Please model this.
Amino acid sequence: MNIILTRPLNDTENLMQELFNLGHKIMHIPTLKISSAILDPIKLQNYNALIFTSSNAVKNLRIEGEKKNIKCFCVGSVTEKIARINGFTNTISASGNVNALKNLIINSKELKENDNLAYICGDQIAYELDKELEKEGFKVRKFINYISEKITSLNDANIELIKKYPPNVIFVYSLRSAESFNNIVANYSLAPMMTQSTVMCISKKIVNFFTKTGWKKNKIFNPGDEIIELERIK
Model:
């Protein structure tokens, strides 16, 4: 199959290689540029747990203190995997959405009311997780440790690839990424090449966005299950 991956290269390089090895044609069309925010190191001794709502929050983390035993709540399995690669061992993941992450934290037996939580995220969020947790009695400090910027342009090589190999499947991992990708398609009049594409989205909100903007084949998937989902589409 012809597949478009929209994550930044360092987030999708391993998946690209796996898909190549399975015989798929891969087009890498990044939709967001991620850069680190200027932020002092987080002092772990001041917190009972860390909350990560994306793998970029882990990758751009600067800390002081011992990280092996501190509890880490991760939005999904990919974020948890990155946390473990970076030396965190006491981790747990939700099902890939922030509401599930909130419920995981609220129901955790390892936390109690008035515990101090460090919520680490990017500059663009669709859900005020810190405020929701504060309503439950937790003390939450939000740290914005990365900035995301939309990419809405394509180079000539990618334009020609899309025209030569119209995508069967497109993987999209955030609402901002969906907005950016939709802009790219409009800017370069690529919609006729996309009419048969299945757009794989990580949430209902993203599915709704694509449906409202005229895309016909939109499905929800869990990050990390890309290869499984491709087998189902076959």
The chain has a mean pLDDT of 91.
